[in-house]
Write a structure and sequence with these properties.
The chain is of the alpha+beta class and 498 residues long. It has helices at residues 5-8, 23-31, 53-57, 66-72, 85-101, 121-130, 151-175, 187-194, 210-214, 227-237, 253-260, 264-271, 275-282, 312-334, 377-395, 419-428, 430-435, 473-487; strands spanning 15-20, 40-44, 47-51, 64-65, 77-80, 108-111, 115-119, 140-142, 179-184, 202-205, 299-305, 342-353, 360-365, 402-414, 442-443, 458-460, 467-469. The protein has a six-stranded mixed β-sheet with strand order 6-7-1-9-10-8. The protein has a five-stranded antiparallel β-sheet with strand order 11-14-12-13-15, with helices on one face. Strands 4-3-2-5 form a four-stranded mixed β-sheet. Strand 16 (458-460) and strand 17 form a beta hairpin. Helix 14 packs across helix 15 (377-395).
Length: 498
């Protein structure tokens, strides 16, 4: 791309955003096409978390109470969306298909299960210079292309729009899901663009259209400007408007800019270190890089929310449900038929108390039993519940009232040995040795950092590649000699260390 750096610095990337249309509802529609023409709502607890476009046309909306939705649309068909397995499977299939359509090294960043950002700069340039497709406009466009910039930039954006249409068509042909797409020069702008023409359509947005699109919308339309930031904003600015009685949620993007201006200094005074970024986002400026994912989860996390939870007996009941789902997720995501492809090394427990927005988290080692499928799911779940409850009893002193629990398996590591071997190594590791008399508890801020003993204490097994204490080498070698015999038995291997 040519031209002056100052004029083209915001044009140096082409980012597309793909959003699966009403994802939860469409997942059911893909399974049963008859649902497409019926008003369909997806329920979690007493809330309609999402609905299809047929239901929306009749007045049903997201995050509406089930009873309110039924009053508005008596013929609303409601299905449970509390089991997320089918949604995760659909999301993973779409991600893998998109990945297959990209050249080697193509970067995809995900947002939740239904949104994808892709950097298509190289793809667009390659198609343009190779003339693999005609240069023309596909889909809608908003804004104007600035005078004085190279025509080549416009052509690359048009090529990106063509590529976006190809991806959407590919997903529909193979997986039957429709998607909406946005094409622009940043994550913020492309996400904004994908929401302009929905469903099953796409929009190319030039940066100068940003304020026309979002200026009169509420501040919730700014991605990354979350609940805490909005609370600070409302506390700072109070009400707005001549009447002086408008609710805080009625602040628009333009109104905030009118009051705070475009000088980052005032934003920093209000929002601290995030002030500069918020100032830029409200003006449509976003230089944040894509954070590509491999398709492998960095954590497996299950949470549940409820009105009240005031005793450890109630906590244990919730933990039993959460941990059962968590162990099943671990098996679905990581078991390849012979062993766990990766193992989580840390267990993170998070909770939120009533009337307090911020979560509190602690972490500890994953119980070895959780990784051993031969023990059966009931035993593995019981071990997970026991460890989680032990941490919560340390954290919750005195009376409490929880409204959310989250249990997560984190710090995944590749594994080259069987779960049985991994169970042995967990018991024999330096950390387990140090923790037999005392459970190690860390704050959520540092649970990712693993203490590593001196390398002088370690040996690496030539057979399985597992790191072990030097003094464990002889016993570990005996284990390998006994392993074929042990694998003939249907009984789970029980390891006891004095």
């Amino acid at each position: 791309m040519t031209g002056s750096l100052d004029a083209e610095i915001q044009w140096e990337r082409i980012i597309i955003h793909l959003d699966i249309d009403c994802f939860y509802a469409q997942t059911f529609e893909v399974e049963d096409e008859n649902l497409k023409n019926l008003p369909l709502g997806i329920r979690q607890k007493q809330i309609i978390v999402t609905c299809n476009y047929c239901a929306r046309a009749k007045g049903v909306r997201k995050l509406q109470l089930v009873n309110d939705a039924i009053k508005i649309c008596p013929d609303l068909l409601i299905v449970s969306g509390e089991n997320l397995d089918k949604f995760r499977a659909a999301s993973k299939a779409i991600f893998n298909l998109l990945k297959e359509c990209l050249p080697a090294g193509g970067a995809i960043e995900t947002l939740g299960m239904d949104e994808f950002w892709i950097n298509v700069t190289d793809v667009a340039n390659h198609q343009l210079y190779s003339r693999l497709a005609e240069v023309d406009q596909i889909g809608h466009s908003v804004g104007t292309f600035p005078n004085g910039l190279s025509e080549e930039i416009l052509q690359c954006l048009q090529m990106a729009a063509r590529f976006t249409a190809m991806l959407r068509r590919k997903v529909f042909q193979e997986l039957k899901f429709t998607m909406s797409g946005g094409i622009s020069t940043s994550k913020l702008l492309s996400k904004t663009a994908s929401g302009i023409h929905k469903p099953n359509d796409q929009t190319l947005m030039f940066p100068n259209a940003f304020m026309d699109i979002v200026g009169n919308k509420g501040v919730v339309s700014i991605p990354g400007f979350g609940h805490q930031a909005r609370a600070v904003l409302y506390q700072t600015l109070g009400t707005v408007g001549e009447e002086g009685n408008r609710t805080l949620q009625h602040f628009t993007v333009k109104q905030v800019l009118d009051q705070l201006g475009t000088n980052p200094k005032k934003w920093i005074d209000i929002f601290g270190k995030n002030g500069t970024r918020f100032c830029q986002l409200f003006q449509g400026i976003d230089d944040s890089p894509l954070k590509p994912v491999s398709g492998l989860a960095t954590q497996i996390s299950i949470e549940d929310s409820f009105r009240n939870c005031t005793s450890f007996g109630e906590i244990e009941e919730h933990l039993l449900i959460i941990c059962t789902t968590l162990v099943r997720r671990l098996d679905i995501d990581e078991w390849n038929g012979e062993k766990l492809k990766r193992i989580p090394t840390r267990l993170r427990i998070s909770f939120r108390t009533k009337n307090v927005w911020k979560r509190v988290s602690k972490s500890t080692d994953v119980p070895g039993e959780v990784l051993n499928r031969q023990l059966g799911i009931e035993t593995r779940v019981k071990a997970l519940v026991k460890s989680s409850l032990k941490i919560l009893k340390i954290m919750l002193l005195g009376s409490f009232n929880l409204n959310l629990l989250n249990i997560a398996l984190v710090n995944f590591q590749e594994t080259t040995c069987s779960p049985r071997q991994k169970l042995i190594s967990n018991f024999a590791s330096p950390k387990a040795e140090a923790n037999r008399s005392k459970t190690r508890v860390e704050s959520s801020n540092d649970h990712e950092d693993m203490d590593k003993p001196s390398s002088a204490n370690w040996l690496t097994c030539d057979q399985c590649g597992q790191s072990i204490f030097g003094w464990m080498a002889e016993a570990h070698a005996r284990f390998h000699k006994l392993e074929p015999e042990a694998q003939l038995s249907d009984e789970p291997m029980i390891v006891e260390l004095e």
